[in-house]
Amino acid sequence: MSLAPPLVEFHDVTVAYGRRPVLWNVDLTISEPCLFGVVGPNGAGKSTLLKAALGLVPLAGGMVRLFGQPLERVRRRVGYVPQRETVDWDFPVSVMDVVLMGTYSRVGWLRRPAAAERAVARESLARVGLEDLADRQIGRLSGGQQQRVFLARALAQQADVYFLDEPMAGVDARSQEQILAVLSGLRDAGKLVIVVHHDLRAVTDWFDAVALIDMRLVAAGPTRETLTPDNLRRTYAGAIDVLDEVGRAVQRRSRTP
Amino acid sequence: MTSAVGYLSCLAAIDLSGLLAYNTLIVAAGTAAVGCAAGVVGSLSVLRKRALVGDAAAHVTLVGVATAFALTGRRDLPTLLAGGFAAALAGLLVLVVMRRYTRTRDDAATAIVLSVGFGGGIALVAGMTARGIPGSAGLENFLLGHTAALTARDAGVLAGVSLATVVVVMLFLKEATLVAFDRSFAAAAGWPVAVVDYLLVVLVAVMVVVGLPAAGAVLVTALVVIPPVAARQWTDRLGTMLVLAGVIGLVSAVTGVAISAVVPRLATGPVIVLVAAAIFAISVLFTRWRSPREAA
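YS: structure for the whole thing
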């Protein structure tokens, strides 16, 4: 047993956009390297939880610790894959240019990436199976390939904790497999991989542990013990109400002659 | 028929010898540097989707130029441009404050700053001209651009500032590209994205100010926006785009200076804009024809 501090801790984290709270008193500790899923309905605050960990949204309350320290001290050990839709894919940069961005923190101000950084970027590209497309403009890639470019950029960050926001959204089956293989590889190498994921299917196959979130933390723990029907009902309560309403409306319509 | 004859006789009145005058050549060289730098700085601004912010800053400069003249009574270029720059920064500050502390959306805030700054400038200039304040008539040159009045020393100042701006862009190209492409990734990696953003906006403000004598408050935005967009048609590489935008800006600026030097009473700005627009149109047509994109 090690006495190392937990890898990621959320303490009573509350986040509000304007006056509308999107996360309420979330308490979550992840101590072991694993593939960790953050699951919940649309608008449940899953992405906001990642952004809170990365310092991208102001906390209305609570605090986040990574490796037992404030984020500013350990940013170099953190990798991030934002949602694919957040950038302009028509931007005039190549696949290689984007992956090199993962090395910029190590390169620092005013200096350009050198041979060492290029080697890291090339190796990261090879790990996601895109080494042949290094010179291509990023807009000329499929959705799955674009997502793998983002993953390669995070790999080039050479972090210890990785945060991924919907890496499987709009991704073809082949890319999905490849992404999952890379993430499992990171876990096996002792890294913590936290993935926001909206699709309940495959959650049990992919993630070692999950957090179910619906503005509050509903449940967290090993996937099989946490993904119970009861917990799911509590997480998706709002969404299931909507489904019931739709069902009733359809019934009503079929009854009218 | 008669109009054609009239046009020809008008052309005959044009004195081409003015084109090769020493002063015109110096001014053309200075304006070339301005056009080139505007293309380079503008590329980053366009990629950061901040074209309209530059336009607001450009229009606001007029009130600064007029105020500088009213306060100092001097009409030398550095004084007037310093006033324009101060006004541009003040306008940008108002923009930031409006976004943060009022319920005003980006586009509305930009439109308000642009129109109020420009309206104030026009009112000041008109007021001083009407009261016959000596020298105030020259301020109208800052509306649409008028390079014929520039001295060799002015051209040197413009070229020097342009060169310095390009150097700063080159120094921070990596950071600016990162923030323009993926702000949240940059922020998560610990880069001060707001600082980089402000730096870029200030560079654009500098560029619109040094572009004032050439293209004027109304049209200088075109010098910052059209060359980058035209350059983007030809290439998918950022480096190539910067160089091409610089060349297109340079060609537009020099052509504008040359044509307005030989056609009496033709302002420089409109010519620069039309040349740049023509290059843009050719770029679009030629690159579409060369490699038609999928009609989706």
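YS: worth flagging: The beta strands of chain A are 8-17, 20-30, 35-39, 61-66, 78-81, 161-165, 192-197, 209-214, 216-222.
IM: good catch. Also The two ends of chain A are 70 Å apart (CA to CA).
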